[in-house]
Design brief:
Strand order of the largest sheet: 3-2-1-4-5-10-9-6-7-8
Order of helices and strands: EHEHEHEHEEHHEHEHEHHE
Strand content: 15-25%
CATH topology of the largest domain: Rossmann fold
Shape: globular
CATH superfamily of the largest domain: HUPs
Number of helices: 10
Distance between the termini: 19 Å
Helix content: 40-55%
Structural class: alpha/beta
């Protein structure tokens, strides 16, 4: 298993250049075809009066289409400058989340960015990202909006909670795990929880070894939420990448009670590969 084709989301946000750089570097490492996709954002019409709507929609739509084409052309120029052998740039009129999830079906990996809470439109961007994570049939590599460096693979943290999603993320990340210098497979539990997961951790370590990945196994008892414990572990281990399942519970449950996925989307400090 490897990555033969990748899709990177393109937009006009400040995180776009760093995201493109990471996608180009990954495509080069895996000799993969890289697709840059610039969806045309959806207009927010809630604040407009009916009389002004038609004229505004026509002008705003033309502006956003032109911007999307400019973004796609810039991506094309970046790939040419990087001498990437196989790439293409696309513009799509479909809604952002629908566009990305649909196009990602024909690729092996989708690269996106964590929404920046200080920017206008953050709530809409977060909602679109959550929709992609829930509906996407491929793994999503999320780059923190503060991350400006290349993606390093010295130390990778695998978060396992016994869910189907966490195992799928582990499988989806195999091409990256095989290139990592050190991989840590971690599980967190409260003091009252039993130790039965330890047997499955040993089995997962063996499975990873069969896949060419030598992983250290760690089971930790913690009073913290799993999301906070995961972030602390990433910092303590100097992790360059976190691999985890996304939305192992229903999204409304995670929104109501917190949830590891929501914690990471809000507070990630290193790139995170998520699979649902």
């Amino acid at each position: 298993m490897t990555y033969r084709s990748m899709l990177v989301a393109l937009d006009a946000l400040p995180a776009n250049p760093a995201r493109i750089n990471i996608a180009i570097a990954l495509a080069r490492q895996f000799e993969a075809h890289l697709i840059g996709l610039a969806p045309i954002p959806t207009l927010d019409l809630q604040t407009l009066q009916a009389a002004a709507m038609d004229d505004y929609v026509a002008r705003a739509s033309a502006t956003m289409q032109a911007q999307a084409h400019d973004i796609a052309q810039h991506f094309h120029a970046r790939c040419e400058a990087a001498a990437l052998p196989s790439f293409e740039a696309l513009v799509d009129k479909a809604p952002v989340a629908e566009s990305l999830t649909s196009r990602a079906q024909c690729t092996d990996l989708l690269v996106m960015s964590q929404p920046d809470p200080s920017l206008p439109g953050h709530k809409q961007q977060l909602a679109e990202l959550e929709e992609v994570l829930l509906d996407c049939s491929r793994p999503v590599l999320l780059v923190p909006y503060t991350h400006l460096e290349p993606l390093r693979l010295r130390r990778v943290l695998l978060a396992w909670d016994g869910s189907r999603e966490s195992v799928r993320a582990m499988t989806d990340a195999l091409p990256l795990l095989r290139r990592a210098e050190a991989v840590t497979l971690m599980h967190w539990r409260g003091e009252a929880d039993d130790q039965r997961p330890l047997e499955r951790l040993a089995g997962l370590r063996q499975w990873l070894a069969f896949q060419g990945v030598d992983a250290e196994v760690r089971d930790e008892v913690t009073p913290l939420s799993v999301g906070d414990a995961l972030l602390n572990a990433a910092s303590d281990h100097g992790a360059d990448l976190i691999v985890m399942g996304a939305y192992g519970h229903a999204r409304w449950t995670e929104r109501l009670f917190g949830g590891v996925s929501r914690t990471l989307l809000q507070s990630m400090t290193v790139p995170v590969l998520m699979s649902h």
